[in-house]
Amino acid sequence: MKVGYVRVSTTAQNTERQEVIMARLGVERIFCDRLSGKNTERPQLSAMLGFVREGDVVVVESYSRLAL
């Protein structure tokens, strides 16, 4: 299964561009956080990590979206 993670740094920013990329790549499930990468508590990133299983593919628009 292709699983996507989308993050924008503020609630004012739009996730649409990243979501369009995910759709074009055939991502079946998207997890989305709207908060700064400096914030290490990202509920949807944690949810995605708990959701994925061996063999799944995680898709991000940029490595910076994962910034841990």
Spatial order of the strands forming the largest sheet: 2-1-3
Strand content: 25-35%
State the distance separating the first and last CA atoms.
23 Å
- Mass-distribution shape: globular
CATH class: Alpha Beta
User: Can you tell me the number of structural domains?
Assistant: 1
- Calculate the mean pLDDT score and round it: 89
Calculate Rg over CA atoms: 11 Å
Which structural class best describes the helix and strand composition? alpha/beta
Number of helical elements: 2
Q: Write the CATH architecture name.
A: 3-Layer(aba) Sandwich
Question: How are helices and strands ordered from N to C?
Answer: EHEHE
In brief:
The protein has 68 residues and is an alpha/beta fold. The chain has one domain (2-65): 3-Layer(aba) Sandwich (Rossmann fold), CATH 3.40.50.
